[in-house]
Amino acid sequence: MSYEPNSGQPYPPPHGGYAPAPGYGPPPGYSPAPGYGPAPAPVPPAGYVGGPGYQPVGGSPPRPTSPPYLASWGARAAAYLVDSVLMLALVFLIFATGMTFSFEVFEEDSPWMVLSVFTMIGLVIFVPFAYFWLLHAHNGQTVGKLALGIKVISLRTGAPPGLGGSAGRQLVHMTLATVGILGWLLDGLWPLWDEPNRQALHDKAVSTYVVRTRGDSAYPY
């Protein structure tokens, strides 16, 4: 129904009832400027995965299986090797010095000699544990990880795991190592096929992962 002035209708009809004025539209011969067209669809940043159901416009480029800032298995293995050599040297120094002192001071069959031996064994176990526990809790880096530019952080907070998380992480690692070579290898090699976080078994136990701290793909602290 069209609106007619002075027809008794109190208001004109809604917008949908209007018809354009005669001759309305682009002038004859009009064409858009060269190159003019709809704005291109936004391109997501490199590495963006998107939410559930997300599909990039114009196709589906391959998506990375792991965030780019995760440390490689090679960097982790090299850092562990550096730390292991350092710990072996430190433990040997402690044990050799302690036992030399004990044999010089105590008689071979005395209770003090037995106590000294058990003390040295305890230090051989505790010193490597304390090394990884305290350094990871403090800033997520041992000497080896600092040299290789990687760091342990919590999945929940993005910060170093703290005393509790770091202690649990190291206890799980040492427990798996005491099972035998199979447990030690399984734990150490697990990041090779674990996606998307490249976690070892001792990482999964306390929800930590290892990230890069240097280069273009460093973790954005």
From TrEMBL:
Residues 1-24 are annotated as: Disordered. InterPro entries: Pra-immunoreactive (IPR051791), RDD (IPR010432). The chain crosses the membrane at residues 85-106, 112-135. It comes from the Bacteria. Residues 70-205 form the RDD domain. The keyword Transmembrane applies. Keywords: Cell membrane, Membrane, Transmembrane, Transmembrane helix. Pfam families: RDD. It is a multi-pass membrane protein. It is found in: Cell membrane. Its main location: membrane. This is RDD domain-containing protein. It comes from Salinactinospora qingdaonensis.
